[in-house]
Amino acid sequence: MLDEQHVAITDSEWELMRAVWTLHRVSTRQLIDIMQKERHWADSTTKTMLRRLIKKGAITQVGETRPYDYVPAVKEQDSMDTAAQDLFDHMCAMRTGNTLAAVIESRDLSQADIAKLQKILNEKAKTAPEMVACNCLPQGMGADCMTEGGERNGQ
Amino acid sequence: MLDEQHVAITDSEWELMRAVWTLHRVSTRQLIDIMQKERHWADSTTKTMLRRLIKKGAITQVGETRPYDYVPAVKEQDSMDTAAQDLFDHMCAMRTGNTLAAVIESRDLSQADIAKLQKILNEKAKTAPEMVACNCLPQGMGADCMTEGGERNGQ
DNA sequence: TCTTTCTGACTACAGTTGTAAACTAAGAAT
DNA sequence: ATTCTTAGTTTACAACTGTAGTCAGAAAGA
């Protein structure tokens, strides 16, 4: 399984993928019903999404007989991690911490999740810098953007 | 400033916005130079992006005289937080923790950032559930997706 | 003032995304 | 075997994106 990795999944497609990932193996019928209940999609909309995801290599069609089945071709956790990393990649490094704080604060996390994050943070604290610089401009361009406190003009 | 909030910023637009946010107030010329150095954009590409962002309400044109200036109309931290929340909103809640772990692990965070996150986590730990359920399917549809360990078939 | 140079505004255009109708070939029912 | 019903395949289409060329009106220079 030479994992084609890095399939770009769009907003709407995420919904379909979640169903496929969760059920491991689904029929078009199941997907149509789920998406209908969840997003009020017309049958054809689900079919189109399914077809696009297959072309993109995110889903694989399986089975010989006619009502085929569909299984995920990419891993859910990988896709999630990649999507998140990609997002943070184009946001100011100096503000990453704040955004992470906002997300963590608003999400339900299990005891195990929290323990895991705490462990990572403790480890990271050992070598963390006093402050992270803004990386929004190509070097040389524009006066350096941060003020004394490490906080850019508090908006 | 009746903050129109919730302007959807696209991938390419993020780059332009970062420059505007960082410089607080810029001229078209500056932006063109920055984007040229950073993304090899043609002058017109930068102009188009700028114009679209203005129309979207993410940037405001200021000044009376001809070479106008441009200032952000939405706050950077808000936009970042919103984008991150939106992303996590359509991903499996059960796996959020893992993705956050991946992101935290790969990012540079300052001592202050880490301290802040640790504080939030400690607080959260007090009331965190033993496990977070998968929320990928409309209730009722499909067998519940998690196995004993709280981990869906380890992919 | 006349010409050159910016810079702001409009146009272009292919590819993607969100949504969905239409058509066709397999199975299922009669 | 004939017809009905699914399920898979094509086509549609407007809005949005990434990229960029063109043109007209201001500013600046000659």
UniProtKB/TrEMBL annotation, chains A, B:
Domain of life: Bacteria
Record-given protein name: CopY
Organism: Schleiferilactobacillus shenzhenensis LY-73
NCBIfam families, per the entry: CopY_TcrY (TIGR02698)
Family: Belongs to the BlaI transcriptional regulatory family.
UniProt cross-references to InterPro entries, sorted A to Z: BlaI_family, Cu_transp_CopY/TcrY, WH-like_DNA-bd_sf, WH_DNA-bd_sf
MF (Gene Ontology): DNA binding
Keywords of this entry: DNA-binding, Transcription, Transcription regulation
Record's keyword annotation contains DNA-binding: yes
Pfam families to which the protein is assigned, alphabetical: Penicillinase_R
Gene3D superfamilies documented for this protein: Winged helix-like DNA-binding domain superfamily/Winged helix DNA-binding domain
Gene Ontology biological-process annotations: negative regulation of DNA-templated transcription
